[in-house]
Design a protein that fits this description.
Layout: H1 11-35, H2 42-63, H3 71-85, H4 88-91, H5 94-98, H6 111-120, H7 122-132
């Protein structure tokens, strides 16, 4: 008699993280499209969107399976997102900053705190949120 493995009870939360990541990436794309032509370095804005897309694909596959979502993956997600956030001064013009135009990573940067909350609990999510903030 073979016993079926118990499904991971957190998997639905990770599916939500993945869906949230793609929804926020689409919003970021829309922001870049609307602001196109106004950036200091438009090529860098599109490059960041490309990196965000690539990481969204990779992290989606990795977050989907319990065995492929170690703590280091969530930490890397946070580090990468923070690094992309920090490119904003090289991308946005002074006028965009003055008008509070959304950063390239915009709401996409909210995903690592949600992932940290799923992986480490509420405290981990709050800590990751403070880092992104």
């Amino acid at each position: 008699m073979t016993v079926a493995p118990t499904p991971d009870p957190i998997t639905p939360m990770w599916r939500g993280v993945i869906a949230f990541r793609w929804l926020t990436w689409a919003f970021a794309c829309g922001t870049v499209i609307v602001q196109s032509g106004h950036y200091q370095r438009e090529w860098l804005a599109w490059s960041i969107v490309g990196v965000m897309a690539l990481w969204s694909v990779v992290s989606s596959f990795l977050y989907l399976r319990e065995r492929t979502r170690p703590p280091a993956l969530v930490v890397f997600d946070l580090v990468l997102t923070t690094a992309l956030l920090l490119t904003s001064p090289w991308v946005l013009s002074d006028a965009q900053f003055a008008l509070n135009v959304p950063l390239i990573t915009t709401v996409w940067a909210a995903v690592p705190p949600v992932a940290a909350g799923a992986r480490f609990g509420a405290g981990g999510g709050v800590l990751a949120g403070l880092v992104v903030g």
